[in-house]
Amino acid sequence: MRPSRPLFLIGLVVVLAVITWAVTRSAYLSLPPLPWTAVPTLLLLALAEGFTGVNLLRRIRRKPNTRPVEPLAVARMAALGKASAHAAAVIAGVFAGFAASLSDALDKPTPRHDFFVSGGTFLAAAVLVGAAFFLEYACRVPKDPDHEEHERGASHA
């Protein structure tokens, strides 16, 4: 499994934002108001992934007063980080498109409410993408210092 690629995730956000913008422009009047509950949910997920990443990073790097971590647990956390990054990018794209489609109707109360909810959800999804990237980074096995020294010696020869 390869780490998530930022350019792929940005492309995913942009494509979904354009699709959502086009759909919302024609179907907004038939949609119910957006609930605000996605914002705290995404922020709590980001907090949990950030905390897990810090804990995992300390355990993988064998910091004092930490127990070693099982390799299978690290693989599962890396998969969680990658899945979270992709899912959060999809959510960010959808809500960015929603906000963009409502940006010209801010003088009415319901579209203004939906604009701020969708903007907040976009920002919360972006925070989750960052936390997921950190979790993926924390799952990387550090290079062996002896192996690095051997590589430096071979490159000088």
Q: How many separate domains make up the residues?
A: 1
* Number of strand segments: 0
Q: Beta-strand percentage?
A: under 5%
Structure class: mainly alpha
Low-confidence stretches: none
Distance from first to last alpha carbon: 33 Å
Task: Please give the count of helices.
Answer: 5
What general outline do the C-alpha atoms trace?
A: elongated
Fraction of residues in H or I helices: over 70%
**Quaternary:** single chain
Q: What is the arithmetic mean of pLDDT? A: 88
User: What order do the helices and strands follow?
Assistant: HHHHH
The Rg value, from CA coordinates, equals 20 Å
> Could you give a short account of the major beta sheet?
none
Structural notes for this entry:
This protein is mainly alpha-helical and 157 residues long. The chain has one domain. The protein has helices at 6-27, 38-60, 71-102, 109-138, 145-156. The mean pLDDT is 88.
Please give a handful of descriptors for the protein shown.
mainly alpha; about 160 residues
Kindly summarize this structure in a few lines.
With 157 residues, the protein is mainly alpha-helical. It is built from five helices and no strands. It has helices at 6-27, 38-60, 71-102, 109-138, 145-156.
Sequence-ordered SSE layout with sheet pairings:
Layout (H helix, E strand, L loop, with lengths): L5 H22 L10 H23 L10 H32 L6 H30 L6 H12 L1
